[in-house]
Amino acid sequence: MAWNSYIEQNQDRFIDELKTFISIPSVSASDDHFQDVVKAGEWVSSKLQSIGISNARLMKTETHPVVYGDWLHAGDDKPTVLIYGHFDVQPADPYE
């Protein structure tokens, strides 16, 4: 199946998953939302595992957790891809 067909066929699911993820108030600037940051990290880790990244995990740090995942089965002759991002958000108020 072509990638664009896959996206079209799964668009509703993708949107539902995104709604679930962005509904987590993972405001890292607020100690009141520490558990929400953890919950968002657990969500990301779980999503990685569900797509076959068996070595995906939430790792504690001195401050906020990080999500790590790797899939090392492509072969030594294949390029390495690194994806770096964040899963915390900024407070909604005040909106400028």
Overview of this structure, please?
With 96 residues, this protein is an alpha+beta fold. It has one domain. It contains 2 helices and 2 strands, in the order H-H-E-E. A hairpin with a 6-residue loop joins strand 1 (55-59) and strand 2 (66-70). The radius of gyration is 16 Å and the shape is globular.
Q: If helices are DSSP runs of H or I spanning 4 or more residues, what is the number of helices?
A: 2
Structural class: alpha+beta
Please tell me what the overall shape is.
globular
Instruction: Give the termini separation.
Output: 44 Å
Alpha carbon gyration radius:
16 Å
What's the helix and strand layout?
Layout (H helix, E strand, L loop, with lengths): L2 H20 L11 H17 L4 E5 L6 E5 L26
Antiparallel strand pairs: 1-2
Summarize this, please?
The chain is of the alpha+beta class.
Looking at this protein, list some descriptive labels.
96 residues, alpha+beta, 2 helices, 2 strands, 39% helix
